[in-house]
Amino acid sequence: MPELPEMETYKSLLGSLIGGQKISDVEIGREKSINVPVERFIAQVSNQTIKTITRRAKYLIFQLQDDSCLLLHLMLGGWMFFGKEEDKPDRTIQVKLSFGEQHLYFIGLRLGYLHLLSPEEIKKEFEKLGLEVLDPDFTLDTFQQLMEKRKGMIKTTLINQEVLAGIGNAYSDEILWHAGIRPDKKINVLDEQQLTRVYQSIQFIFKKGIEQGGYMENPLYKGDNKTGGYQFYVYDQEGNACSRCHTPILKEEISNRKTFFCPNCQK
């Protein structure tokens, strides 16, 4: 599932590719990927200029010239491709936005969606989201205050979007490996030094993830050398040697989520 670094990469790349461009045509291949009747969606979105592309947590918001918005959540397996018809991937397309001869293809939206919403509806969608980890207000003191009220496992708390917005299953494993904390550790037994390490690891891993274009395996466009440069330390690395101590990485289920960690480094 794309997380904050992947969506931040999409945001910055799409801003230069389609920001200020007019949507010349719209095609809907899967009605369940949108939230209004197909005819209304096409009529309201066609011939609109994309004013801005912003991100909140794992969402992208395409603001249109009439101030309506397209809210994108890729969920599990969703991705995008931008290019000409002859360059598109050989995959089922759920939604296609055209910009003349170039098109933005939304792929793998079996659980994801592209919803047409008003600014007020967007605001309501985000009401329950917690503080974002890239927000200037996300300080060490703020993080420690948030954690002192929690009693669950550190991994499940990090991926709770109502506590912190933007961390998902993959990057939570990366953060906790970097901090040297077991993912099943209870928050109320972590001391101030350990919580400080977790906070610093959030900053380190997300900065690196964004700088390296996240972990998406599919390029956004032909010749894209930015997307997907991040290489996991532990996530999805079961059996591989830990890059820090060479102990084999383990996989366990925590709260029904596959979780990867080093049994030697994370104690």
Automatic annotation (TrEMBL):
Residues 2-112 form the Formamidopyrimidine-DNA glycosylase catalytic domain. This is Formamidopyrimidine-DNA glycosylase. Monomer. Its EC number is 3.2.2.23, 4.2.99.18. It comes from Lysinibacillus halotolerans. Its cofactor is Zn(2+). Residues 233-267 form the FPG-type domain. SUPFAM superfamilies: Glucocorticoid receptor-like (DNA-binding domain), N-terminal domain of MutM-like DNA repair proteins, S13-like H2TH domain. GO terms for biological process: base-excision repair. The lineage of its organism: Bacteria, Bacillati, Bacillota, Bacilli, Bacillales. It catalyses: Hydrolysis of DNA containing ring-opened 7-methylguanine residues, releasing 2,6-diamino-4-hydroxy-5-(N-methyl)formamidopyrimidine; 2'-deoxyribonucleotide-(2'-deoxyribose 5'-phosphate)-2'-deoxyribonucleotide-DNA = a 3'-end 2'-deoxyribonucleotide-(2,3-dehydro-2,3-deoxyribose 5'-phosphate)-DNA + a 5'-end 5'-phospho-2'-deoxyribonucleoside-DNA + H(+). Belongs to the FPG family. GO terms for molecular function: 8-oxo-7,8-dihydroguanine DNA N-glycosylase activity; class I DNA-(apurinic or apyrimidinic site) endonuclease activity; damaged DNA binding; double-stranded DNA binding; zinc ion binding. PANTHER family: FORMAMIDOPYRIMIDINE-DNA GLYCOSYLASE.
